[in-house]
Amino acid sequence: MILSKFWSEVVNRLTPYVPGEQPKIANLVKLNTNENPYGPSPKVLAALQAEVGDNLRLYPDPNSDRLRATIAEYHGLAPNNVFVGNGSDEVLAHAFQALLKHELPLLFPDITYSFYPVYCGLYGIAFETIALTESFEIRIDDYLRPNGGVIFPNPNAPTGRLLALGELERLLQANTDSVVVVDEAYIDFGGESAAGLVGSYPQLLVIHTLSKARSLAGLRVGYALGHPDLIEALVRVKDSFNSYPLDRFAQAGAIAAMQDNDYFEATRRQVIATRNRLVADLGLLGFEVLPSGANFIFARHPEKDGAQLTARLRERGIIIRHFSKPVRISQFLRITVGTDEQCQALVEALKQI
Ligand SMILES: Cc1ncc(COP(=O)(O)O)c(C=O)c1O
Predict the structure, then answer these.
(1) pTM of the full predicted structure?
(2) How do the pLDDT tens digits run along the chain, 353 residues long?
């Protein structure tokens, strides 16, 4: 169907990603887009303030050298193992175009981050989805077949389920002819990062974001870790698209965030502790909650409809995320772990409902 004669063929065919709502109403309990309930480190705020000045007339460093060196040091890697972008969504987009477009189909789970099929549509990438198990787990054996690449989040989204690092390594040992991308947006809330495997597997690309555990969704910074050849592919795409994806604020703020380990540890531990309490509270209300390694949980009630629960929570000023498709997850609620007070408000509202 032609939507507009002025649009290119690819735009006519696109089905864009729909991000979670950013409400304009104040005082909502916002548990719908997996942001951190705690603000960024005070050192980040100071670094941002220090950037306000005459230098804003100058372009930022196109290669974000200081930030890449800081990230490399944090992970025990070299700067040429690091690529940075405007949020991990941009890093992912470049990876799809640079590394995952081949004749054989790209493989990813049937229930996963819903941006992946959107990138495939944008770049014309053939893909096949692999069903999660009955218990919503990724089974590596299902991926051991010829492919043009493999991508999944770990922990997976929106399920929150974590894949053991040993299982990923089993895939990497068998899958040596195509790139394996592990999207670790939520890894700091309970999992072990694959960053330490980058030196051993030249086909591994690990993607991180500062939007979640570093409380900087508003600054838009994400990065990839991988063999220098993979990183160079991303740089080639970036320099054919936008030379300055990170502005001066993003670079300065991200450096400060990566350096403030104490703040990072304190806030992520707090989120994990609140998550554990929330899981217990929802269990008492009869919810089935999938084991979560993330800053969100995925839960369903055996008697209450997922869409209706979401609507009734909203009437009470609490927003969470509900996916009506695929049918297999249509009864689940995806709830971001907020502060203790926010989670308590959610539990009280669910009790009333
Ligand atoms: C699995 C996963 N990957 C990547 C992202 C993108 O994060 P950002 O673009 O903010 O870095 C998200 C955002 O929610 C996500 O859930």
Answers:
(1) 0.97
(2) 778 899 999 999 998 998 888 888 888 999 999 999 999 999 999 999 999 999 999 999 999 999 999 999 999 999 999 999 999 999 999 999 999 999 999 999 999 999 999 999 999 999 999 999 999 999 999 999 999 999 999 999 999 999 999 999 999 999 999 999 999 999 999 999 999 999 999 999 999 999 999 999 999 999 999 999 999 999 999 999 999 999 999 999 999 999 999 999 999 999 999 999 999 999 999 999 999 999 999 999 999 999 999 999 999 999 999 999 899 999 999 999 999 999 999 999 999 99
Within a 10 A sphere around the Cβ of 79, how many other Cβ atoms? 18
The ligand 1 atom nearest the CA atom of 33: 14
326 preceded by cis ω (within 30°)?
Answer: yes
Phi (first) and psi of residue 82, to 5 degrees:
-125, 135
Contact 36, 213 (CB under 8 A): yes
Q: Is 153 in the pocket of ligand 1 (CB under 6 A)?
A: yes
State the distance from the centre of ligand 1 to the C-alpha of 215, rounded, in angstroms: 13
* Among 113, 116, 208, residue to substitute to test ligand 1 (most atoms within 8 Å of Cβ): 113
Give the number of the atom of ligand 1 that is nearest the alpha carbon of residue 89.
Answer: 9
